[in-house]
Give the backbone structure.
Amino acid sequence: MTPDLPTRSQPAGLDRAVRKANRPASRASFSLAIPLLLFLLVTFVVPIVSLFAKAVDNPETRSVLPATVAALDAWPGAGAPDEAVFAAFARDLARAASGRTAAGLGKRLNYEIPGMRSRVITAARSAGVVQAPFKAAFIKLDPVWGDPIVWATIKRDGRRLTPSYLLAAADLRQTADGAIVPAPADQRIFLGILGRTLFIAGLVTVLTLVLGYPVAYALALAPPLLASVMMLCILLPLWTSLLVRTTAWVVLLQTNGVVNDVILALGLSSERLQLIFTRFGTVAAMTHIQLPFTILPIASVMRTIPAAHMRAARSLGAPPAAAFWQVYAPQTLPGVMAGGLITFILSLGYYITPALVGGPNDQMISNFISIYINSELNWGLASALGVVLLVVTLGIYGVFLRVVGADKLRLG
Amino acid sequence: MSAVASASFRVRVGDADAIMDATSFVRFEGVRKSYDGKQFVVDDLNLAVRKGEFLTMLGPSGSGKTTSLMMLGGFEAPTFGHIFLDDEPVERLPPEKRNIGFVFQNYALFPHMTVAENVAFPLRYRGIKGRAAAGRIAKALAMVHLGHLGERKPSQLSGGQQQRVALARALVFDPTLVLMDEPLGALDKQLREHMQVEIKQLQRMLGITMVYVTHDQGEALTMSDRIAVFNDGRIQQLATPEVLYEQPANRFVAGFIGENNLIPAHVTRIENGTAVMALGDGTILRAPAATATRSSGASTLAIRPERFFVDTGDTPETNRLSGTVSELFYLGDHLRIAVDVGAEKPIVARIPALQRLPLACGDTIALRCHVHDCRLLEA
């Protein structure tokens, strides 16, 4: 034995020695993951961070009205600002008019005070011709420029970051004096949409569990050949594009579609039913698409439960149903939890299927994110809604792990 | 050494005789089982297990022993034949109505329940609750020396401890019959031997009937009152361990239980109940003739390795086989030698080390054995 070898009395040194000895191996295995980590960094981490940034980013007012925002620093917030502010405003607007940036500012202010878009554009058009004293000239042009609320809004919007998108995504707004209040009743839509999203995702999760659990059980009990055929049938839809499967549901559910034909032929209804563009259609199509995600984790857990457990329960006196519920079912919980969680979280983000199969009242939060990105061009609000969805998802995941325990979850 | 062996032999046979007076408790009658409709994995099983008996079904894998146990437990239905439990036919009775304790190969403890909950499980379905249940659970766990581990989960126990929990769970509801399917297979040798003794003691103490399946002949010999040796779906021999060892019924049993030299031989005549036979090289051997032994024809002579001794003198009533030592192993208490005597396979002999023979490979040696230690079997 070499004298410098760490002994039982030097555990700290031994710790370090073990780490040092294992370092090349852990480095080698880590280096294998580097390509994927880089890929994830570029495609996943950077977009998410920029999403967070977009949700609070507030560049318009600051870039279009730099002098005005600086001059407003001295304004106490009561009454109309002084001449210096209006002079800076005239200069900024004149530059905005030549640089065609006034429309962006108008749109931004319009989020806060409806009707501001046209007023800003009108003011910008006149900015080149107004003469000092600018305060009187602007108020004469449009009395709104004498309103302190407008200037308070510009001052607040002049900050680099704004909470207004995130507040709007939570159906809240900030008043001119900075208080956070509920949004006007006719603008309170996002919490309802979030609730609807959670409800549909929850319903789809419950349905896939109810429909998928027996299938997983049959799969676990089936002899190998039959099991592989069943597995193929379960996986086959996964190899088809989501869009194709959704379109298939459109074909099936439409008023002159197969489902209605069958209902009519069986005499279940005397007229064709409205199936497409309904909540029923959305949930049916989503349930179908999500079934494999629920079944596979359950089946993989079931396959690890030895047949001897049910036999043991029976031999100890439990009738078949009791043996199943007391001994078998509790052991499948990690799979049920994993399958349910995967389906729930995936369902929260559904976009295409509700868009094609659902009606206006079945659209989920992703659809609104898309609307704000593609049609409304309000990326700030779209990002804020994305943040809300992400936070809610992570929150549910966290609560789930806390309540159920990570050890109860078998995702692999 | 032989005096000790025969003494224990007598005592054990005495035990078995006492059991024989008891009535049969489990009966298989003409039971056959086929899974694929082509082959019988259990073929014409007729077996009576006596009350309070420890009966082992011993055989290689695929011999039908586990299937027989599963049929008795109610997990498989016989294709033909009947199984009686206390004279009631049970083929149609589901396992939960048979009141049989079953210990499975990998224990089948329920991982989501604590040890105490596992042991409480059979009591739930027998209407035993509250203090009465707690008392029985404590008693059952104390019986297997696990009284302090009731609150643990099975995954927190060692293999041996899990085995004991399975035992406690199978015994806590006082079954009259307990079945065990290779319960010690997953344990290491030392623990296995310890548990063999413990299970045997429990069975004797509680007076329960036990049917035990194993492929380990040492385990079967240690624990059983009687052993049913299975091969190819049939019972080859049903007897006490002593009879199985001393008087194997056929080549399979002779080769499966303990070690044996199975020497092809040709019976030439029978003299006063002793068969005389010749080996290929002309060596003359004698063995007690069984009643069925024909006066001439091919047969097999079985001689245990430990029944050989090295003797230069001409001992009467012995067979003599000479040849060259081809292998020699020193094993502490004995020498294990293989001797080429001109038969198909070399003869294996175990020579007590205290004889301190100056042997080496290549030496010529004469092995002797008593005529009554040779057993003549069908070819």
